[in-house]
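Just curious: can you write whichever protein you like plus the matching structure tokens?

***
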Amino acid sequence: MNSTTIARNAMAAALCFASIAAAKPHGVRRAAPPPDLSGGWSNLTATDFERPERFKHLILSPEETAAYEKLQNDPDLVEQDAKAQLAKAGRPPPPDVGAIHVEYFEKIHMLRVRGEVRSSVIVFPEDGQLPYSTSGRAQLKAARKREARDFANPESRPVEERCLLGAGEPLGPPLTPGLFNANYVIVQTRDVVAIEGEMNHDVRLIRLNAPHGPPQIRKWMGDSIGVWQGDTLVVDTINFNPGESYQTTSGGQYILSDQARVTEWFTRLSKTEIHYRFSVDDPKTYAKPWAGEMVLKASTSPMLEYACHEGDYSLRGILAGARRAEAEGRTPEPLDGGDPPAKP
């Protein structure tokens, strides 16, 4: 990543983060070694990626925070609320087991950044919603329809269903909060920063002070290059694999095209916190760049194996069920992924 690219990305990020308090400039990297990001971390939160309709502002009051945390930590209340939201949208409850039965979710506390309780990870645009272009919204709608109704072959199923990437793709980039298994281990060396996610088996490698690879090579999780600016690790990621264009996260889904560029900033605040922010520039999908931030908290929890139905026996069952339905002269029962909400 050359100085011109860094300057351009920094300018775009500055525009994205105009709605929040700006970080102090760090200047040139001093001669001392950079901060060490190594350790166990978690971004577990009850805050969704995009802002739910129930919240009108980025920063929540103590009363709003207490009420929402109480809701998220009571499975019965979550189920009642989910059914009410679906009914409000004119949609029936989903037929699949586990869609709104959330005993295994770990949405305990809302996200807190600089002492503020946040209603969404997204901070720009100010409404906390992804700024899809008309064509981008059509892409999202088509991807949701494929996930809900296309059982033709393994390649038509989402990557997490095929155990290629973790459910919710928590390693991104950008890093996104998961409903469970939201743990990471970071290992930092002179040349590479490696981030392992507990969800599935993924390890994302960020090469330091290196050039990007050729655009013909499209890696899972993209091609990430990092440089130190002051005490902040700045990561530039391009060349995303088209197989992961449709990504899921807490509270919804989003699209990253083959033209997407994601910039991330990792700043270690203390022994127990890393301030993490990001911006996404994807003119093929969005009308303007968008940005978000969160805090990674130090975690002493061990990283547990996530087998992801080893051998893909669940995928074989899904396709076998579809073939059985076809043999009986009926179409496979659709999983109603719903349509993206209309935007003005």
